[in-house]
Amino acid sequence: MTVEEYICAHSTPENEVLQSITRETNLHVLNPHMLSGHVQGRVLSMISWMIRPKRILELGTFTGYSALCLAEGLAEGGKLITIEHNDELEEMIRRNLSRSPLGDRIELRIGDAIEIISNFKFQISNFDLVFMDADKREYCAYLEAVYPLVPVGGFILADNTLWDGHIVDPAYDKDKQTQGLRAFNDRLCEDDRFEQVILPLRDGLTLMRKIK
User: What pTM, to 2 d.p., does this model score?
Assistant: First the structure.
């Protein structure tokens, strides 16, 4: 048994809806490894339960797995807005969300994240928790876009910040997504508006707390 298998075996299992989404994503969608998966899904759920957010914003939902995990910890009457750029996944996402009793607390928006976020400034003032898991080349732009929407004391999570180890591998110096993640990590390290830590979970998960 590997350490990863041991961790999975000793973590709360996925519910039936999440198991189904995992199966269908692996069967029908390209790059199924983009799914958050069992352990990361439980971590996202646990963080959400700790915070008990009233509003959550997710950038990049893929097939809806992570949105359902985050929605588990929503405060009573809370809402999650998730944005997905790939319109070919819309039907599958909506079907997956509808399978869960949490689905009616999740609003899916299809389109460019930056464009959609820009409209939030006139409609929604606060998100207690933001999960960034979209185009890695745009992480710096995403951070600036969501910053005004997160209150002091609020949290932002950024996925894939170790990028399968490519983040420290010179062989990927010319890869645009690696460059984007390196720029994000370096910029965040010098940004006094946040406290942050990178967890070596799966592909790297950065936790940020807004302090100013």
Answer: 0.94
